[in-house]
Specification:
Blueprint lengths: L1 E10 L6 H19 L2 E6 L6 E10 L2 H17 L4 E9 L1
Antiparallel strand pairs: 1-3, 1-4, 2-3
Length: about 90
């Protein structure tokens, strides 16, 4: 069994309030959870309105499958928000 985790940091310059940020984060989390069947949550910087940090994890019996899932989720994030990805931290155990 392999466990893959990833933390993706976004920068959203246009966000002016925490309420606006929450709408973006909730949308990304709900859509990615439904599409990929992953565990996903906002994991850091909740009080900073222009920085979004989302973490997700998945379990599989193959490292290559986890790599595919991770890359697909990151591509999904890129295509479903105007925020710019500034950092990606991946780990497979």
């Amino acid at each position: 069994m392999f466990i893959g985790s990833c933390i993706v940091t976004f920068r959203a310059e246009w966000v002016a309030s925490l309420k606006e940020k929450r709408m973006i984060v909730k949308s990304l989390i709900a859509k990615s959870r439904n599409k990929f069947n992953i565990s996903v949550a906002e994991v850091d910087m909740q009080d900073v309105h222009q920085v979004i940090v989302i973490g997700f994890s998945a379990v599989s019996n193959s490292k290559s499958h986890l790599d595919d899932i991770t890359e697909n989720v990151i591509a999904f994030f890129e295509n479903n928000t105007d925020a710019v990805i500034t950092d990606i931290e991946k780990e497979i155990l």
